[in-house]
TrEMBL record:
Species whose genome carries this gene: Nocardioides oceani
Sequence similarity: Belongs to the acyl-CoA dehydrogenase family.
Cofactor(s) of this protein: FAD
All residue ranges annotated as the Acyl-CoA dehydrogenase/oxidase C-terminal domain in the record: 219-340
GO molecular function: oxidoreductase activity
Domain Acyl-CoA dehydrogenase/oxidase N-terminal: 7-95
UniProt-listed Enzyme Commission number(s): 1.-.-.-
InterPro entries for this protein: Acyl-CoA_Oxase/DH_mid-dom_sf, AcylCo_DH-like_C, AcylCo_DH/oxidase_C, AcylCoA_DH/ox_N, AcylCoA_DH/ox_N_sf, AcylCoA_DH/oxidase_NM_dom_sf
The protein's name: Acyl-CoA dehydrogenase family protein
Length: 369
């Protein structure tokens, strides 16, 4: 397959890298980590002004109308700088809303708001315990023509500032997606800091009204998109971590030689490079299969999820290790990449759970990736 980025994606890459490099400095990220919202609203506004938060919004609603490849490029650049902005949850929700709108839904005004920056949406796809994201225990019941949701969602990313949340829930006809106003009747939030210093939300729904989004396949498609988005973000985190290690090891000396000249250290970095390259290749395959609606799209998304969970975590572990004592100093930025890599490795299920899901998909669909 051709791994060359198209013209639009190259433009996104250049613009995103310029904005994020200039604005998501170590000092600025540290400042945002102790703020009330844990979101860099100034950076989010800059990304919006550049059209980057509306990449996936159809052009008739004021967006760029691009797809997963452009999103993956943007998230990779975000990961390089561990910039505290809610790109992935907003983008994954946008994709679901855009698909539903194209199929006759009425999500145009919200999509227009996302493109302009006046609206933000997050996703509630996880629950407590060993819950399978594809089989939520949160329930949705139709009462008098209204869908009412009841249940608890865990680790909702960046709910502060989001006006709506896309919630997965079980219905009598199978799992589905519902759009819920973030502060509607029957909605209760408790926020708490998580590993990346983001404020995540515990969302309790007690008969909250939700608007169905998409068809019966909507949740499966959204989980696929989320896995791809998380892998792209992890790819950037791993590359940013490796760049820090290479710079540090080239400058720090021991026994009169740069640490990077020692063979044992070189082997560690070589393993990191191999893992990053594998993550990049499987991400490209997953994006290609998803955009082509290939029969192997679900399997490809799980393959790259395994690399995100296992290899991504391995990379940040190795990078932390080769930094020695300075790796545990929170004044030095490498710890931040470890924290992001750690959390991303477990979102929507860790390596073992992902591998089990992949086995189920291969058996069910008769495909391998």
């Amino acid at each position: 397959m051709d791994f060359t980025l198209d013209e639009d994606s190259l433009a996104v890459q250049g613009l995103a890298r310029e904005i994020l490099t200039d604005r998501a400095t170590t000092a600025r990220v540290r400042e945002v980590e102790t703020s009330d919202t844990r979101v860099d609203e100034e950076l989010w506004a800059a990304l919006t002004s550049a059209g980057l938060t509306g990449l996936l919004v159809p052009d008739e609603h004021g967006g760029a109308g691009l797809g997963l490849e452009a999103l993956a490029v943007l998230l990779e650049e975000q990961g390089r700088t561990v910039a505290p902005v809610p790109v992935w949850p907003t983008a994954v929700a946008t994709l679901a809303l855009a698909r539903a709108d194209a199929a006759g839904g009425a999500h145009g005004p919200l999509l227009t708001g996302i493109a302009s920056g006046s609206a933000r949406v997050t996703v509630a796809l996880e629950e407590y315990g060993a819950a399978d994201p594809a089989a939520p225990s949160t329930s949705a019941s139709e009462v008098g023509g209204r869908w009412l949701l009841t249940g608890v969602k865990a680790a909702v990313p960046s709910p502060v500032g989001a006006g709506h949340v896309l919630v997965s829930a079980a219905t009598p006809d199978g799992p589905g997606l519902f759009l819920v106003a973030a502060h509607a009747e029957g909605v209760r939030w408790e926020t708490m800091p998580v590993t990346t210093h983001d404020l995540a939300g515990e969302l309790t729904l007690d008969g909250a009204e939700g608007q169905p989004v998409g068809s019966g396949a909507a949740l499966a498609e959204t989980l696929r998109d989320a896995r791809i988005a998380l892998a792209a973000l992890q790819l950037g985190v791993a590359q940013g971590a490796l760049a820090l290690a290479a710079s540090y090891l080239a400058e720090r000396e021991q026994f009169g030689r740069p640490l990077g000249s020692f063979q044992a250290v070189q082997h560690q970095l070589a393993d990191c490079w191999i893992d990053i390259d594998a993550l990049r290749v499987t991400l490209a395959q997953a994006v290609s299969d998803a955009e082509a609606d290939s029969p192997s799209a679900a399997a490809s998304a799980l393959v790259v999820s395994w690399w995100r969970a296992q290899a991504g975590l391995d990379v940040v572990h190795r990078v932390q290790h080769v930094h020695g004592g300075i790796g545990v100093d929170v004044d030095y930025p490498v710890h931040r990449f470890f924290l992001w890599g750690k959390q991303l490795s477990g979102t929507l299920g860790g390596a073992a759970a992902t591998l089990a899901d992949l086995g189920d998909v291969v058996v069910r669909d008769g495909v391998a990736s």
